[in-house]
Amino acid sequence: MTRSLHLTHDYPYSASAVWHVATDLDHLRAVTEGLLAFRHLPSGAIHEEQILEVEVSLFGRLPFQPYRMVVEALDPVDMSFQSDEQGAGVRVWRHHLQVVPTSEGSRIDERIEIDAGLATPLFMLWARVMYRARHKPRLRILAAMAAEGAV
């Protein structure tokens, strides 16, 4: 039973800066801090066909679980990627992200499809909380980059 979630977040920063933050694994670790802890997560920008075999822990307190993320598609011109993920009780976690320029900066448009069997509604709730929670840390990262002149 696959269900879908669609979220958008607006940023007063250029699409290229937001794309950089959204596709950097070090920033992934930062924007999920307190919600997820990772083991074996590499550094740097994601790339197409990248396979990440990691372990995740909810809140960094529950036991670590194996989790696999595959970057199925990545288009830096379109500023979009799609990952296919599974593990930790999830059969399917398909994440599509696109950064779109706007008149006031840019927008992240995300679609997440989840199948976790009978636990799908619980994982959908978790996804909504987790993806919304990434917005404020991304804003802080972008503001720090702007202060350093990197935006």
What do these coordinates show?
This protein has 151 residues and is of the alpha+beta class. The protein has a single domain, classed as Alpha-D-Glucose-1,6-Bisphosphate, Chain A, domain 4. The protein is built from four helices and seven strands, in the order βααββββββαα. A hairpin with a 2-residue loop joins β5 and β6. The longest helix is centred in the C-terminal third of the chain and has 14 residues, at 120-133. The mean pLDDT is 97.
Question: In percent, how much strand structure appears in the residues?
Answer: 35-45%
Distance between the termini: 41 Å
* Basic shape: globular
Number of strands: 7
- What's the CATH first level? Alpha Beta
The H-level CATH homologous superfamily, spelled out, is: START domain
| CATH architectural group | 2-Layer Sandwich
Gyration radius from CA atoms, angstroms: 15 Å
Quick take:
The protein has 151 residues and is of the alpha+beta class.
Break the fold down into its secondary structure elements and pairings.
Layout: E1 3-11, H1 15-22, H2 25-31, E2 36-39, E3 51-58, E4 65-75, E5 80-87, E6 90-102, E7 105-115, H3 120-133, H4 135-147
Antiparallel strand pairs: 1-7, 2-3, 3-4, 4-5, 5-6, 6-7
